[in-house]
């Protein structure tokens, strides 16, 4: 490990979106929508993380990892609340109807990835199968958390967003979230390994997670673009991402693709993906995190 261990804490942040424009990256309406998809995508998923990890906790025998998982749960719950607040007080305020997208997310997490996927109660019939399904879903979380760490590191270092004079409230929201993803980046991987997860299972589930994330971002971007009167002809997600990555307001396609390949190295560990101190430095100067610290 490169970074010393430290306790994960929940920062009870709040954001005021009353002056935040829908195109929060000036002159970049489509790139703004790509990132705004996160408000629709994450609340259901992160609350599912919390429910799953609460079920996994009884199987965690290592004291430090047990504390880390509890800290992870508290942070993810706050992420879900923050982005749900943005969904209700920011996107809805700008006339965005997220109903169809949220229905897809609910189906994914409440049906396909539930304790009894598609109503198949056999997953709860034996203790062994129940634990196996918890472990498989923890492998899914480990794959997702690899990308949230990569994206968190990117947004912490994305100077192009500062040069573009991105809305400070939305930028702080995404950077606070990204910093905490970097901060707790090891937990999902370490939990999966602790529960007996294998290198092969992590690889297999990554092949499910990778295309699913791309689809959800593309679907969400299309959902937002079609409701934006300033965009007369919505472009493909690939074209938007290509142009946004060139200007630096979206991650470089090559860096995300390379991060996908890194996951398949036998010696992969998320500790090497980012630097905890960089995350903590931002959290120390984040307006929302600073207010939360003073309030507590």
How would you describe this structure to a colleague?
The chain crosses the membrane at residues 204-225. There is one protein chain. With 296 residues, the chain is mostly helical. It is built from 12 helices and no strands. It has helices spanning 29-56, 63-91, 99-112, 127-157, 159-163, 168-183, 187-194, 199-225, 237-247, 253-262, 276-285, 287-295. Helix 4 crosses helix 6 (168-183). It is globular, with a radius of gyration of 19 Å. The model has no long low-confidence stretch (mean pLDDT 95).
Which structural class is indicated by helix and strand composition? mainly alpha
Question: How can the largest sheet be summarized?
Answer: none
Helicity, as a percent range: 55-70%
Calculate the mean pLDDT score and round it: 95
Order of helices and strands: HHHHHHHHHHHH
Global Rg? 19 Å
Q: For the terminal residues, how far apart are their CA atoms?
A: 31 Å
Shape: globular
What is the number of helical segments per DSSP (H or I, 4+ residues)? 12
Low-confidence stretches: none
Total number of β-strand segments?
A: 0
- Provide the β-strand percentage band: under 5%
Pfam families: Metal_hydrol
Transmembrane segments: 204-225
Keywords: Hydrolase, Membrane, Transmembrane, Transmembrane helix
GO molecular function: hydrolase activity
């Amino acid at each position: 490990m490169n970074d010393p261990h430290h306790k994960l804490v929940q920062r009870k942040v709040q954001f005021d979106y009353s002056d935040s424009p829908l195109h929060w990256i000036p002159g970049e309406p489509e790139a703004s929508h790509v990132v705004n998809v996160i408000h629709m995508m994450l609340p259901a998923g992160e609350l599912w993380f919390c429910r799953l990890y609460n079920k996994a906790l009884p199987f965690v025998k290592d004291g430090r990892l047990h504390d880390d998982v509890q800290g992870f749960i508290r942070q993810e719950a706050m992420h879900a609340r923050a982005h749900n607040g943005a969904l209700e007080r920011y996107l809805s305020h700008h006339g965005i109807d997220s109903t169809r997208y949220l229905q897809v997310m609910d189906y994914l997490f409440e049906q396909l990835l539930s304790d009894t996927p598609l109503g198949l109660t056999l997953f709860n019939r034996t203790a062994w199968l129940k634990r196996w399904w918890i472990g498989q879903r923890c492998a899914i979380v480990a794959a997702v958390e690899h990308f949230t760490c990569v994206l968190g590191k990117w947004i912490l270092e994305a100077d192009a967003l500062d040069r573009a004079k991105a809305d400070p409230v939305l930028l702080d929201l995404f950077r606070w979230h990204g910093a905490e993803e970097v901060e707790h980046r090891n937990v999902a991987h370490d939990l999966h390994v602790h529960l007996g997860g294998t290198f092969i299972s992590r690889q297999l589930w990554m092949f499910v997670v990778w295309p699913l994330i791309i689809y959800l971002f593309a679907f969400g971007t299309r959902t937002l673009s079609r409701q934006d009167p300033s965009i007369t002809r919505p472009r493909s997600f690939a074209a938007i991402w290509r142009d946004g990555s060139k200007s630096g307001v979206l991650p470089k396609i090559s860096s995300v693709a390379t991060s996908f390949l890194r996951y398949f190295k036998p010696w992969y560990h998320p500790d090497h993906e980012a630097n905890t101190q960089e995350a903590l430095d931002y959290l120390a100067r984040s307006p929302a995190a600073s207010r939360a610290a003073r309030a507590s």
